[in-house]
TrEMBL record:
Keywords from the named record: ATP-binding, Cytoplasm, ER-Golgi transport, Hydrolase, Magnesium, Metal-binding, Nucleotide-binding, Protein transport, Transport
This protein's GO CC annotations: cytoplasm
Cofactor details (free text): Binds 1 Mg(2+) ion per subunit.
GO biological process, one term: protein transport
Cofactor(s) needed for function: Mg(2+)
Protein name from the UniProt record: Vesicle-fusing ATPase
Subcellular location: Cytoplasm
InterPro entries per record: Vesicle-fus_ATPase (IPR039812)
EC number(s) stated in the UniProt entry for this protein: 3.6.4.6
């Protein structure tokens, strides 16, 4: 017997939570500006799946990695 479970798209709160998880290290290391609104970013992917939101988070982490490799200063 096979069971299929449908998982819908995350709502606004879910998208913000996903972005918060994936941007935590950036915020912790002062690479994420205080003026960056995760709520606004969550609104940009209203029709996006959770995997699309995760991709945005991964891109944020990639920026953090490149910045630390390049010796970016958090002034």
């Amino acid at each position: 017997m096979e069971v299929q479970v449908g998982i819908g798209l995350p709502d606004e709160i879910g998208r913000v939570q996903i972005l918060s998880i994936h941007s935590y290290q950036m915020k912790k290391n002062s690479f994420l500006g205080v003026d960056v609104g995760l709520e606004e970013l969550g609104d940009l992917v209203v029709s996006g799946s959770s995997s699309q939101v995760v991709v945005i988070g991964v891109m944020l982490l990639a920026v953090l990695e490149v910045a630390s490799i390049d010796g970016y200063s958090r002034k």
